[in-house]
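Build the 3D complex.
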Amino acid sequence: MDALFNPRSIAVIGASKTPGKIGHAILTNIVKYGFRGRVYPVNPKYDEIEDLKCYPTVLDIPDEIDLAIIVIPAEQVPKAVGEAGAKGAKVAVVISSGFKEAGRADLEESLLEYARKYNIRILGPNIFGLCYTPKRLNATFGPQDVIPGSIALVSQSGALGIALMGWTIVEKVGLSALISLGNKADIDDADLLEWLRDDPNTSVILIYLEGVKDGRRFMEEARKTSVKKPVIVIKAGKTRRGMQAVASHTGSLAGMDSVYNAAFEQSGVLRAGSLEEAFDWARLFSTKKVSKGENTIIITNGGGVGVLATDACEELGVKLLDPTEDLKREFMAYMPPFGSPRNPVDITGQATHVEFEGAIDVAIRKDIINNIIVLYCQTAVADPIKLAEVLIKANKSTDKPIVAAMIGGEKVSEAMDMLKREGFPVYPTPERAVSSMAAMIKWSMKRRVL
Amino acid sequence: MDALFNPRSIAVIGASKTPGKIGHAILTNIVKYGFRGRVYPVNPKYDEIEDLKCYPTVLDIPDEIDLAIIVIPAEQVPKAVGEAGAKGAKVAVVISSGFKEAGRADLEESLLEYARKYNIRILGPNIFGLCYTPKRLNATFGPQDVIPGSIALVSQSGALGIALMGWTIVEKVGLSALISLGNKADIDDADLLEWLRDDPNTSVILIYLEGVKDGRRFMEEARKTSVKKPVIVIKAGKTRRGMQAVASHTGSLAGMDSVYNAAFEQSGVLRAGSLEEAFDWARLFSTKKVSKGENTIIITNGGGVGVLATDACEELGVKLLDPTEDLKREFMAYMPPFGSPRNPVDITGQATHVEFEGAIDVAIRKDIINNIIVLYCQTAVADPIKLAEVLIKANKSTDKPIVAAMIGGEKVSEAMDMLKREGFPVYPTPERAVSSMAAMIKWSMKRRVL
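Done.
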């Protein structure tokens, strides 16, 4: 499996000179994203592509090959996999489609026979590739400029995965890895969990799942992984009709949703209710923080958002600390007389970034407080950019999880972009900030008993 | 009440020349946003402000006054309200704070005595003002460039309301009105509902609510309004702790949440679970469309998002139509052989905007289909900008509600901005598109039996 993420050399079987072709997109992505190993295009039609010498077959390459990326018509794939295996490649990434998903289960079986015979593992077929940013490996036909980070994204759906790849760039979400699983002929979620849980570059694993092959093994790997880092799953096919849609999409058996829920609960997997929620949670987890306890404090300059966050906390089981009189006095230093030192700590619309900084500092210093939620409504007195600087500094100075929600206009939008670039978990509504903190606390408490 | 939204003349009592002061911000906003009536600054310190002649008191203005905006210290407000009333103003917008919310219930009572005596209605006190875009009236100290549209936003929270005002600009959400309610000494949600339901410029009313004064009247006005146009409420203080937070914020009695739920249900009010959801719904309602029935169809180029949307439909009670063989044949004209003409209609990743257009056209033409959900995952073959053009055209050609979700990179983000500017309801995830459609169908069916 290590050859999938850390290959020293790659053969791109079916590399092409023609822009628009997948075999061209993958090769250029590998080259332009700055892969640090050696790359060999394979195609009998060319002598060179992108200034790289091109070989008629993988067997002709005068070097060892760790990883083979295969982008040729389905019929020819099994043999190519055999050749790559014979050449010593440990994993083949089969981009090509036209297998089980197109009614050709026979071709997929033949592919697996070659793989077994030549002792090579298969990712795919019917996928858009994989990306591993620590090694500058972008072997996908998606966008080139994936932002490095610590979220590993695993998708059973190709179209969704590749679209999300673009979305992460716009949203400034940093990825460690992006893996398309497709038909899961061989490598599946469980294999990836096994590898990713020990990957120091990955702090959270987000999986779009339609169905698993081996439930027991998935659970076991998920449990072992959840002890170390959070596993977030978007499980599609929750409902009767959703299951039918899954069957006609990837042919997976979605299975009883209640069974999945029980399995996730037992193995510590966090099940997100939507795509948005999954990425919201992953943003906080990518800070690599862990809650030391359940006591949470809300610091706000707006009463209304404070109430909305309070409601969300109660609904999601986030425990709001009742400040002692001593603690109240400390918070009161950062608010006008009509502010409220209770929780939510309302430093009022008169607060500048200085009062925010002071109140956040109190929350960081007090051992009784484990988690901090900061809410900001744009005002003329509190500059959102300066608040962003305060948040970034605060986040670096403590191992307590901190999240923020910011509401306002253009300048708030700039401040949020700045925070996102720095990996600070910021959200556009109080409810989304609270939901992320709830997931953090749930995982932090659960991992102790797994 | 008409004087609040359609005043022919406004006096700004406490207008100021000093940038940074609220009395300056409000006057300049009124002038610069292009108010179409007459404006009179009132302040004994100045002869003119912003090239407008300034008067020592409202009584000195040589013109009739419909609306008075009051921005002076709380202690002086009751008398000023009396003067404005004596001058014939029908409504006073009291921006000033320092009343009940600051422990000065006596001052608020005095304000009301003057109001009753001089027959003038009060909006506020303790608010950021009001904005009514059809008359280019921006009497707030918030951002200047509010985007005209058909959503009326009513907020009991000042900080939240003003922050959302900026947010609507960034998010290209068009507003008809924005009203800050603050302490609700006189004018409350029910009064606004009564006026807004007959306002041809408003197609949906969105209320941030902490508590109501007169539950029976609110329900009655909400029911009468819901027959004509949707009323969306974000009710804060749902939970025990949230109610406490409300009490310390605006002093409202949040009341039993179950009672509110029953009242909302009975009066046709749509209760949103979060800020985001409320605006998502409002975006669709601002198209002024009504569902003629419950039959919904999903058209997608990505199997995975189709499944996620299907799950969301089932969970939210959105009825997915089972296409007849005839209908399937029609859809099949716009997909490759491995596409699926069932619902979700999967035109596959090979679809261009032409196939989208064809499939959407089928859905528009067939009377059996009432509601259309379009899902797009970015691909190299389907240009998101061209798809946006298709969607805008389709939306104009039918009275059926259409929503879309688009996932992808920079170009998708551009296409979504384009759609938002055109008032097309587009969302970043399938779940949010479905939630909005569910609210549309719920309201459309409910209004018939109110």
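Chain A touches chain B through 76 residues (CB under 8 Å).
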